[in-house]
Design brief:
With about 475 residues, the chain is α/β, with parallel strands linked by helices. It has helices spanning about 45-60, 65-80, 85-95, 100-120, 155-165, 180-190, 205-215, 225-240, 260-275, 295-305, 325-340, 375, 395-400, 415-425, 455-460, and strands spanning about 10, 15, 25, 35-40, 125-130, 130-140, 140-145, 170, 200, 220-225, 245, 255, 285-290, 345-350, 365, 385-390, 410, 430-435, 450, 465-470. The structure holds NADP nicotinamide-adenine-dinucleotide phosphate (NAP) and magnesium ion. NADP nicotinamide-adenine-dinucleotide phosphate binds near residues 213, 226, 281, 446 and 451.
Length: about 475
């Protein structure tokens, strides 16, 4: 079904012809070949989908936690059964190495669905507070808008939580990666989700996305994407008093304090910065190193970076695929030029294309980066690491906190207590202490311009409820 998709949208539990005839071509960024087409949904399609979500809302709102859990874990089962197809699709749409698609792009959403299935059973939907019972009611119809970089995970984090809360959904996936969203829609139906609870309309941001944000019958917008678009969505939602959740960009710091295991911190740090071609909102794109360990760290980082040779995503040895599209490739190369022009030292990498065909960028490391440089302030979204030097921990903290963003980060020190004490002063939503592992049940989201609200875990479900207090 997903292969050879054409001008259709997924509404009310099945496929429907889109209202218009405008199409979006889906391109494989490694081969530059068109691999399919999907509908470029219009405002009329969004209307149809929102009507279906509205009609399905009362029944789904009154479903039991057991029903929701069964469908969330059933969807994980269907996805697991289609994992090979889903991984291949993500690699084809996004260019992520196939092993990464299997392990992370498909593997993580499976864990997230399982976590919501478990958490919904324990969720405090009714709580006694004195003479009141406080009910957590679903917000209603949610408009979900997602980016291409983790095309399944980012959908599952919001749609799974919205379903757990009892909301219905209209999803507008990124135009670069719509096919996996349609596969997920089929999986929900196969798992027994009632028609209309999740609807998918592919389309362009300024058309379908904007229509969804502006739709009077949408109660909440949950958006993941760039800070620029997030600002405009937040403003529009404010104007119509819709609830809004925004997961936006980042420029996260990996702070290596004196006494830390520099070898490990650099190796893990480079891997984090280059994960998914550097197209990761939480990537540690700035490495902060004390002057006493600086030269050692730069040499280690360059050696680690050179192991990320760009290559065919289907080759099991490949760790770095292409950028998602030519625009993204050009943007990343522009930042490499900017880094050189501003006087940062290019330790490894290049503006030149490492491979002729496909949207590839060479893994790049800059040293002697100053905190004010564009490559230290702006989100690049590619395999470009900036290494900055500090001379005391106050300076490290000032640099770490010295951007508009605050999404993630890492701190390495001789002890986890020391790292945690430093992390407490960081204005950022997630910090890994001495390489602590990503936890899909911990809230994820940003301080400052990295967003409003949290996804994942119990906190992620809470994003989609509103409270009704009944007094007795
Ligand atoms: P983007 O341009 O903001 O697009 C995100 C989504 O919004 C896409 O579906 C896009 O549609 C849609 N959109 C664009 N303009 C819109 C408008 N005017 N109204 C409504 N919807 C609109 O971001 P991107 O370049 O695709 O993704 C990369 C960005 O996402 C990075 O900044 C990254 O940091 C951020 N991100 C954040 C998180 C997080 O959790 N904090 C996670 C992942 C990514 P089209 O696809 O048609 O453009
Ligand atoms: Mg885009």
């Amino acid at each position: 079904m997903i292969e050879g998709m054409d001008n259709r949208i997924y509404v009310d539990g099945g496929w429907q012809q889109a209202a218009g005839s405008d199409l979006i071509e889906v391109v494989n960024p490694a081969t530059e070949a068109v691999i399919g087409t999907v509908a470029a949904g219009s405002a009329a399609d969004i209307d149809t989908a929102v009507a279906a979500a509205r009609a399905a809302a009362p029944q789904w709102a009154s479903s039991s936690p057991e029903d929701r859990a069964r469908i969330l874990s059933g969807t994980a089962d269907v996805l697991k059964a289609r994992a090979d197809e889903a991984s291949a699709l993500i690699t084809a749409e996004l260019g992520a190495p196939l092993s990464l698609s299997q392990r992370l792009h498909v593997g993580l959403p499976l864990s997230v669905l399982a976590s919501y299935a478990e958490l919904v059973m324990a969720y405090p939907f009714a709580e006694e507070v004195g003479n009141s019972v406080v009910w957590a009611r679903p917000v209603g119809v949610v408009g979900a808008i997602t980016p291409w970089n983790y095309p399944l995970h980012q959908i599952v984090t919001k749609v799974g939580a919205a379903l757990a809360a009892g909301c219905t959904v209209v999803l507008k996936p990124a135009e670069d990666t719509p096919l996996i969203a349609y596969l997920l829609a089929e999986a929900f139906t196969e798992a027994g989700l009632p028609p209309g609870v999740v609807n998918v309309v592919s389309g362009r941001g300024p058309v379908a996305g904007q229509a969804l944000v502006g739709h009077p019958d949408v109660d909440m917008v949950s958006f993941t994407g760039s800070t620029a678009v997030g600002r405009s969505i937040g403003a529009a939602a404010g104007g119509s008093l819709k609830r809004v959740a925004l997961e936006l960009g980042g420029k996260s710091a990996n702070v290596i304090l004196p006494g830390a295991d520099v070898t490990k911190a650099v190796k893990v740090g480079v891997g984090n910065a280059y994960l998914n071609g550097g197209q990761t909102c939480s990537a540690w794109t700035r490495m902060l190193v004390h002057e006493s360990a600086y030269d050692e760290a730069v040499a280690l980082a360059a050696a680690a970076a050179e192991k990320y040779a760009p290559g065919d995503p289907l080759d099991p040895a490949t760790r770095l695929g292409p950028m998602v599209n030519s625009k993204q490739r050009d943007r990343v190369r522009g930042y490499i030029e900017a880094g050189m022009a501003e006087g940062a030292r290019l330790v490894t990498g290049s503006v030149d294309a490492p491979i002729d065909r496909g949207y590839y960028v060479a893994p790049t490391v800059f040293a002697d980066v100053q905190p004010g440089m564009r490559i230290a302030q702006e989100e690049i979204f590619g395999p470009v690491l900036s290494i900055l030097r500090y001379s005391d921990t106050d300076e490290a903290l000032a640099i770490a906190n010295g951007t508009d963003y605050g999404l993630a980060g890492g701190v390495w020190a001789a002890t986890s207590e020391e790292a945690s004490t430093f992390a407490a002063k960081m204005t950022t939503g997630q910090v890994d202490i001495n390489g602590g592992a990503f936890n899909p049940r911990a809230p994820f989201g940003g301080f400052k311009s990295s967003g409003i609200g949290r996804e994942l875990g119990r906190h992620g479900i809470t994003e989609f409820v509103q409270y009704q207090s009944q007094q007795f």
